[in-house]
User: Fold these one by one.
Assistant:
Number 1:
Amino acid sequence: MNHPGVWITTIMASSILMITMGTRQSMGLYVGPLNTDTGLGIVSISLAMAIGQFMWGAIQPVAGAFADKFGPRPVLLSGLLILVLGSALTPFVSSQLGLILTLGLLTAIGSGACSFSVLLGAVAQRMPATSRGTASGIINAGSSFGQFVFAPIIGKLIQWVGWMSTMWAMAAVVLLAIPLLNRLTNDTHAPAAAPTPEGGLKKAVADALRNPSYLLLHLGFFYMRLSHCIFSHPFAHRGRLVRAIAYCRQLVIGLHWFGQHCGQLVCRFVHQSLSQQIRVGSDVWLAGRAHCFVLGGTQN
């Protein structure tokens, strides 16, 4: 990480992720005004956002496969444009189906296509292997920092100009990531084709599912998302009373994830001499203690 070019690449990628994930992870701030204007109901809006959460994860391996074939640049650019399209069309919809199409599909597919998997692959082509671990931690922190930055801005804009104008403004902000993307993906290319492993993808997935470490990794991510929902619940309930609390909740969650990714960087330097099992175990124990402390405090 001592070379200036490595830092420039890392900051550009982190900025792209900050913009795309910051706008996406603050979607919860639109629920109240969107429900008031459209009358669709919290259930219909929540369904659209739940579908979006699923699609955001499901599209990433597909986007990665396209990046392997065509290179990261067209995939990332297409993702940005689809995200802009979904955000720009959302204020025009007035039905549950339309909301599922825009928030559940377009914005989720767009943000997923230009998310971690493809973006980190593009960065890896522009820096030495010794810097990739630290760079990935900084880039990941950019997604949480995006929520930390955008949540109060979006909350205030909704109060001042309404949720429709705010969503159009966020679509315009996403367009600002295109120059960064062009600079980041300059001279990137599709990776050289690797020999197909014996048995193909089906056997590779079957082998992974038989690996306890792979299953524990999924369990770890499941715990993280579950704790996120549980942590959000008390704030979400109280957010009905005062609108300011709604975006304060997003701000707190943004700090939560930003602290998590900063913790990854700290653990990288502090735990280098420890075994993987001890490192993962200590991180899970600390995370569990922190969540118990926070949840205990929010129940009063």
Number 2:
Amino acid sequence: MKEVAIVILLIFSFSIFTGCAEMQHRQPGSQNSSNAGYCAAGGLIVGGLVGRNAGPKKNRTENTLLGAIAGAIGGELLCVVIENAARDAAIEAARTNRPVKYITPNGQEIRAIPSSSVYHTPEGNCQDITNEAWDTDRTYLGKVTRKVCDYGSGNLEVRT
């Protein structure tokens, strides 16, 4: 019975964190996508497994729950930090038309590399910016191309 309760809690926690990320994404004026829900889910699973196998076997359920909760929170926070740094780097790269490198407070490296040209859309002027990310141990995390646009307000907005 405890195993069923753990599975239900893990599924419930996953849906909460993913739902929060989606709600944040869909708020009016928000144009940034967020992988925080996926990071929280990954942290939840890893934390649950580590918690289950750590400590005395008689407290396995409690260890699993605590590990899952801690992992989910840690995973979500890590992604939010990386996502914010990537967005800020993309805006700065578009504004200066030069490559930008940010180091997050956790030590991850984020690079933003602007494309060579600005293109015009009916709404305004845009430029493609490629974000690349490395973890603290120099593990390549991946890259994504974002569209940074000025819609006439003077404030640059990031779209993925």
Number 3:
Amino acid sequence: MDRRASLRRLGDNAQWLEARFQSVRVSDDWTARVYDNGGAGTPLVFVPVVPMFETAHVHNLQRFGTNRRVVTYRRVDPPDRPVSVEDRARELSRLLDALGISEAHFCGLNEGALAAMAMAFREPQRVKSISATCLGVENPIPVWMRRLARILQFPIPGPLVGEVVRWLLLGAAPDGYIVANLWGRNPDASASLRNGVVPLYDGYLLPDRRLTMPVLNIHSSPVVREYSSRRWVDLLPNGRLAVIPGDTHLCMWSKAAEFELILEEFIQDTEKEIPVRQKTDS
């Protein structure tokens, strides 16, 4: 992976998305920055992790936006309080209400998928399917790291947060520098880490048999072991595991073609009402 070319492409992706964001009034206290192509059919919502990580889905938005409605948005983490997984579920629900979306497919990396799962527990009728990446049954953020993040109340520059996340969590992922760069673009990365990410892993949400909709888990990251991803899928009545070979944390960006083929087949099976529990892709 050519680092200079990759960072240039990431910058182009960020500019493309910034130029297409629209302001959507969700409530009196939240005007969201939303990308919505207004396409037809059941929407596919890409749920972001923290601010700027929606950029990793630009190629996916362009690809799936050719034949369906696709949506993503820019998250804003509060500087003064932690955001729970229930908060994330309510955030997502309120956004769908504002966009007039009654039901959707959801796709998210890590915490984005956790938010979609939390919404599925609350409002299962609104969740057509969930596509997760890099989730397993084991909590990937060590207890000591979560405790440290909670006590860091002073602002830390985004690039430093990115490098810390890269070296401590991402292992051998060759696209770790892309993760670090996205963290560096976050205007308040320390608040996002302390209030937007760590609280979700303090109460790490696992799937269970109440999630009856089709759920896909794409394994690609060294952060989560493959057996942990398989055990995560086994907790579900209608789950599928797909494996993208080679370590990559942002498979939706670093290996977009493979990621999109897997996601497209999964959504097509879902819309044809083909059971996916029997299928394992590798």
